[in-house]
What we know:
Layout: E1 2-6, H1 15-27, E2 32-37, H2 39-48, H3 50-54, E3 56-60, H4 71-77, H5 82-92, E4 97-100, H6 104-115, E5 125-132, E6 135-140, H7 150-168, E7 174-178, H8 189-200, E8 206-211, H9 213-218, E9 223-225, H10 228-253, H11 257-265, H12 267-277, E10 285-288, E11 293-296, H13 303-318, H14 321-332
Parallel strand pairs: 1-2, 1-4, 2-3, 4-11, 6-9, 7-8, 7-9
Antiparallel strand pairs: 5-6, 5-10, 10-11
Helix pairs in contact: 1-13, 4-6, 5-6, 7-8, 7-14
Amino acid sequence: MKIALDAMGGDNAPASVIKGADIALVSYPQLEFIIFGDKEQVEPLLHKHPKLAKKSRFIHTDIIVANEEKPSVALRQGKNSSMALAIDAVKRGDADAVISAGNTGALMAMSKIALRTLPGIDRPAICSLFPTSKGQSVMLDLGANPECSAENLFQFAVMGEAYARAVLGKKDASIGLLNIGSEAGKGIDSVRRAADLLEDTHLPLNFKGFVEGNDIAMGTVDVVVADGFSGNIALKTAEGAGKLCAEYLKRGLTSSIMARCGAVLAKPALKSVFKKIDPRSHNGGMFVGLNGIVVKSHGGTDHIGFANAIEVTVNLVKDKINDRIIEEIGFVSEEGELEY
């Protein structure tokens, strides 16, 4: 299995990328990497991780897509960037997947042009698993498309349902549209019209209507559909709330001698809880809707989070997730064409 890495994408790149890949090799020694980046920054790091260096092919480029760069500019000026070259490795078949923690808009634009979208899909969406009180749910879009039409949201629902069937084994995955209220008639026009499309479609979708922000963690539905603006805010709000709870818990457990004694006894359970709410443990979301596996890592993640994004990617490739999504889209719509 070969994975292409954009070594220069992300706030902590390239250190987080290289160290994360080295960590991932411990669990997945069969992996090989094609690493794209600036040799002056990457090669010294590879020298510190000889096992990774032996399992990697490094390709130099000093062109980097900046976090603040507009996608249109990145497309014109970043054809030989570390991000674009990593995507092209998947297009050529040299790599099974690509991972980048870089500019989300540029990654989506470049991936869409290089790999193309699946039949009936206008835009790819960032899709990831979200921990809930009932287990896990699927959530999309998490930031690729800040503005969406009703048709885009409809397509996200179909792809999210296919992802839930393929990854979670949900044969009748329930779908909810994220809104400011569960009552009919609430929300902006595109969300209301998307609900009408999902209610009136001939496709065998288990649409449950609108869900609110608190329904996400409760696991009210198996698939939560949102535009990228709302979905990204919801995701990062949940991550911030998790960090806040962890901080409050740490303060409470170190507030007195008795509390510290209790913390020692509860350490195994606490460790498990902290892992579940640690955003790094859930890092890595797939751009569903593309003819290739593209995984977006959080831009601000560290080496542990990037290693988890690699683990997510390994599982997606092993499960042949894109082939299964195509099959599932065909299941809900003949020949993969979506009719509203």
